[in-house]
Amino acid sequence: MEINTLAESQTANLKVNILLETRGDGSAIASILELPQYHVEAATREQALLMLEQLLVQRMDKVEVIPMEIKLPQSEQSQRPWMKFAGVFKDDPDFDAVQQYIQEYRQELDTAENVADSDT
Questions:
Q1: How many whole angstroms separate alpha carbon 88 and alpha carbon 78?
Q2: Three-state DSSP state, 15
Q3: Would you say 41 and 29 are in contact if contact means Cβ atoms under 8 Å apart?
């Protein structure tokens, strides 16, 4: 398995989505959607956002965010998904009759199309 780290493209900023719930008394609960374990409660909306940012910055000092691309092996089945159906009718006694019907129907459609084209 081949592993590629993309650390050189890492930026200094981290974008996250905040879920902010303001209560009837003006207090607020803020959490990071991508990291639900990070949530705070505060007296105001602004305080909640500030506390959440401080909590995340404090935590990020101790960890690294490393984008990584992992190449997964592809099985032959996933490269050609229709191959699992190849040959399923090889022993079917009605297969030739069905093929004949399909051919006749196609000829019928072609004939109808040619007649319609010649009428215009």
A1: 18
A2: coil
A3: yes
Cα→Cα distances 35→2, 18, 19, 105, 115, Å: 28, 10, 11, 59, 66
- Reported as a single tens digit per residue, the pLDDT across 92-104 is 889 889 989 999 9
pTM equals 0.46
Sequence-distant (≥ 6) Cβ neighbours of residue 46 within 8 angstroms = none
Closest CA to 36 of 54, 16, 50: 16
Q: What is the pLDDT of residues 42-75, one digit of tens each?
A: 999 999 999 999 998 888 888 877 888 888 776 6
For 42, counting Cβ atoms within 10 Å of its Cβ (0-12 exposed, 13-18 middle, 19+ buried), the class is middle
Contacts 24+ apart (CB under 8 A), 70-73: 70/1, 70/2, 70/3, 70/4, 71/1, 71/2, 71/3, 71/4, 72/1, 73/1
